[in-house]
Amino acid sequence: MIAIKWNNHFNTGIPEIDRQHLGLLGKLNEVAPDLARYGNRPVKDFSGLHKWLSGYAREHFATEEHLMEHYKLDPRVTIPHCQSHQQFVEKLNSFSDSSVNNMQVTGNHLLSFIAGWLVGHILGEDQTLGRQLQALESVLSPERAYREAGGYRTNPSIEAVTDILVQVYGQLFSGGGIK
Fold it and tell me: What are 33-47's pLDDT values in tens digits?
């Protein structure tokens, strides 16, 4: 089952970032059927998924933060972006802590966490990052790039979210549902 297919909304224009996003999308599609089968029941062991997501976060966040520092992006972009990275790590670790303490981490919790990050962060903040880097390459100052390339627009576009929802809905209700 493919939960979400790569489409043009995911392209940031930053090849390394897009490669990493494609890897996360592939992992989501790989684990989605199993997590969906768990539903609201606790996942017995997600240490392998936790390890993979932790590695993804280390590589991906380091890449993005290096780019932000190298290009000297406006702090109005970098500060909230880095805070969202920290929130991802904290949430991921809270799942791990809960699992170790025999608390319930359900398949639905994990699936919504990964899919929510994919849609919210990548289609929102990472698209903003891509626009900012493109504006800076056009020899704009960080402040002007923020204004002209919409650094304040960090939410996913309605069109992008709608396309993803229609795709997932179509997958679930066209006979290609969760097996």
Answer: 899 899 999 888 888
Long-range pairs, 161-168, Cβ under 8 A, ≥24:
161/119, 161/123, 163/7, 163/9, 164/4, 164/7, 164/9, 164/119, 164/123, 167/4, 167/5, 167/7, 168/3, 168/4
Going by pLDDT thresholds of 50, 70 and 90, the confidence category of residue 176 is: low
List the structure tokens of 149: 């390339």
Question: Residue 116: pLDDT above 50?
Answer: yes
DSSP 121-160: IIIIIIHHHHHHHHHHHTT--HHHHHHHTTTT--SPPHHH
- Residue-level pLDDT at 179: 45
DSSP string, 4-23: S---GGG--S-HHHHHHHHH
Biggest CA-to-CA distance, the chain: 53
The pLDDT value given to residue 169: 60
CA 41 – CA 133 distance, rounded (Å): 43
Q: How many CB atoms lie within 10 A of CB 126?
A: 24
Measured CA to CA, the distance from residue 140 to residue 144 in angstroms comes to 6
What pLDDT does residue 14 have? 94
